[in-house]
Amino acid sequence: MKTFADKIIGFNRSLVFKGTLPEKIRVMNPFRENEEALSVSSAFYKKYYEDNESRHLILGINPGRHGAGLTGIPFTDPKKLQEKCGIEYNGKPAHELSSVFVYEVIDAFGGAVDFYKKFYINSICPLGFVVKDTKSKEKNYNYYDSAALQEAVRDFIVDNLKKQISFGIETDICFCMGTGKNVKFLNEINDANGFFKKIIPLEHPRYVMQYKLKQKQSYIKKYIKAFEEMQ
């Protein structure tokens, strides 16, 4: 019988976008572009998900270049992968603000073992996107940053959300990181597909770290209080 870890690893291994993207936007697939992403993420999932327990889903936006784009693990940058998860990483070093906040939430919940026993984190769109700026430098691009991109990936998002729910996801409550466009889109596809009975929006970690740093502890408490609803 496949474990929760086996299902996630198989999902990541087969993840590919075959649609057509708007001009100048490129899909970012860490499992195809980064040799270490599949191996370190697999080690992570084998460590924390090698069971058949059900979990609640937490959804971000889409992977960023310095977190899941390198490790293959949403909201886990190379630094936190080593410091908090004890998993060796030999690739490009990087630091992501969102990962800092998420692991403070995880610590407040009781640590990685207790947290990942209860939750599975991914993103509404499981692959990321980049666009080149005026200096030809690639930067992160969210799936909702253009109406054309959002429509281009809608079916891809719905299909992959269905696949992940089948891993053993509890459908009474889903937590959404992003209280604006992200939760709006999730509510839209949830209304059409009936994935979850309730969606709880939470401020995105990047927003907290970039704009509300002085109130960070209050947002951590808000996350923990929200998680109490499913206990």
Structure description:
This protein is globular. By secondary structure, it is an alpha/beta fold. It has eleven helices and seven strands. 48% of the residues lie in helices and 16% in strands. The chain has a single domain, classed as Uracil-DNA glycosylase-like domain (Uracil-DNA Glycosylase, subunit E). The model has no long low-confidence stretch (mean pLDDT 95).
> How confident is the prediction overall: mean pLDDT?
95
Give Rg in angstroms. 17 Å
- The H/E string reads HEHHEHHHHEEEHEHEHH
Label the overall shape: globular
What's the CATH topology name?
A: Uracil-DNA Glycosylase, subunit E
Question: What is the first-to-last residue Cα distance?
Answer: 27 Å
Determine and state the CATH class.
Answer: Alpha Beta
Strand order of the largest sheet: 3-2-6-7
Give the tally of structural domains: 1
Helix content: 40-55%
What is the number of helical segments per DSSP (H or I, 4+ residues)?
11
Q: What's the story with the biggest beta sheet?
A: 4 strands, parallel
Count of DSSP strands: 7
Instruction: Please give the oligomerization state of what you see.
Output: single chain
